[in-house]
Amino acid sequence: MKIIAPLKARDWFKWKTRINWAITIAAFIILFLILVPFVEWWLAIGVSGLGAFCLFLLYLDRRTIGIQCQSAKCLKIIETNTPWECGFKHCQNENTNAFPFINQCEHCHFIPKAYECHHCGEPIFLSKDKQKFQSAKILVIPKPSEKPAVVKDALAEKSAKQREKKQDLQHKYELTQLETNIALEKKRAIKPDELEQTRKELDRLYEKNIGKEDAGEWKKEEIRKQYADNEFEIDRRCAMV
Length: 241
What we know:
Layout (H helix, E strand, L loop, with lengths): L1 E2 L2 H30 L5 H20 L4 E4 L8 E3 L4 E2 L6 E2 L20 E3 L6 E3 L11 E2 L15 H34 L4 H35 L4 H10 L1
Parallel strand pairs: 1-2
Antiparallel strand pairs: 2-3, 4-5, 4-8, 6-7
């Protein structure tokens, strides 16, 4: 781990890759110069390249940047690849090798100006303006088992049971009423002879009423012809018909 002052940590992160490559190239050159007097030049290049590659991949690229809490009561070291929560939109940053809190938020690209120490809670300022507002902080994801206990309300539970019982009784009442209506309808069922008699009576009443209606229309037509010049008399006599 490379311990850097908080105000310089962001600049160091920006230059980290370039510095690592510079160290790797320097290591390759030094190893090559050491080996070339003793072995063939192509073998010296291969061994030097392999050594420099291992140095970069296994150490330099994995080396994290650490900052120290500035609180006199804390002074603990914090690794900048700690998963963190953005203080602007509360984004969750877990790809901390590429987006540590000394860089920027991976999702909204907000650049935090302070980090809330997860040891003492004091802000660690990452810029000279010392802005506490919208500080980044450690990402805490609750465990699936840590669900808030559901407190049952005795009154609400009682009301729910009463509603359920009421619905059951209402269903039984409607079912009983339906069965009763069906039984009454069966009793009232019209026999075939009575049905035929009823149909004939309806036909007779229909013909009678139709005849009256036709007679009424004929009478209205006679009134219109007789009192063609008197609208008032036509309306009065037609209304009587």
